[in-house]
Amino acid sequence: MRPVDLARRHGLSAQAVRNYEDAGIIPPAHRSRTGYRDYTATHAAGLAAYLALVPAFGYSASRRIMHAVTGGQLDEALEYVDDGHALLARDRNTLRTAEAALSHLGAVTPDAAASTRTPYSIGELARHLALNPATLRAWERAGILIPQRDARGHRQYLAQDVRDAELAHLLRRGGQPLGTIATVLGELRNAGSLDALARTLEGWRRDLTSRGMAQLYAAGQLSTYLHSLDGSARTGSAPGHGPH
Predict the structure, then answer these.
(1) What is the mean pLDDT of residues 222-242?
(2) Residue span of the signal peptide, if any (predicted)?
């Protein structure tokens, strides 16, 4: 088929299809005696696989997967796919951690926290939480706490800092690593309040569900492409290399 025929199936331009070929995302096309490209069902399957991979794994990872598959490096391609699944699993774990933290904190908001005694010094906050000041400094290095400094350079923990420290203490008791806690508190600070964070997490969950569904769909398209490559390699009818 011509580039334009393949492009129309996916709402692309013929030049986009040629660009994907030149980038090694799909195998080289057959050429007619006059130099025109002639694409096959294998190329169509490859293009469909790539377009399905993008929303599931992103552009960079999708290109690596396609380069590996088209180049016959199946194990390498599957490692990239595994990396994408692992990232999704980590994101789901972080989301569950944030949702669990919200359920524990209930209706506490920065406005409510403002009624607490502030500002705290590092020693006062450590006593409030029954922690060592060194722990609070370690949390600061991890990006969990971001205290202000007074004119003498001493740390000052305001209402939201106290809330963040209490949340961090809760999550640490639950066994969460510092990196995960920093992510949760970063989302909370960006949202501005627990109610806003709850709405953010709802959107995050929808995004993760969409990505998971996209990965399922992409797996089917990639499998179809692999079978097409394998069949073409056996018959010697298609360009490129079959999976090893």
Answers:
(1) 71
(2) none
Q: How many domains does the chain have?
A: 2
Is omega for the bond preceding 119 within 30 degrees of 0, making it cis?
A: yes
- Here the CATH number for the domain that contains residue 150 is 1.10.1660.10
In a domain, 160, yes or no: yes
pTM of the complete model: 0.69
In a domain, 199, yes or no: no
pLDDT band at 154 (very low <50, low <70, confident <90, very high): very high
Instruction: Output Rg (C-alpha) for the chain, integer angstroms.
Output: 26
d(CA 205, CA 66): 28
CB-CB contact of 26 with 18 (8 Å): no
pLDDT band at 114 (very low <50, low <70, confident <90, very high): very low
For residues 172 and 164, give the distance between their C-alpha atoms in angstroms, rounded to a whole number.
12
Residue 66 shares a structural domain with residue 118: no
CB atoms within 10 A of CB 58: 14
State whether 221 and 186 are in the same domain. Answer: no
Helix, strand, or coil (residue 157): strand
The residues, ordered by sequence, that sit 6+ positions from 7 with a Cβ below 8 Å of its Cβ are 13, 14, 16, 17
- Maximum Cα interatomic distance, the chain, rounded to a whole number of Å: 83
The string of pLDDT tens digits covering residues 192-212 is: 777 777 887 888 899 999 999
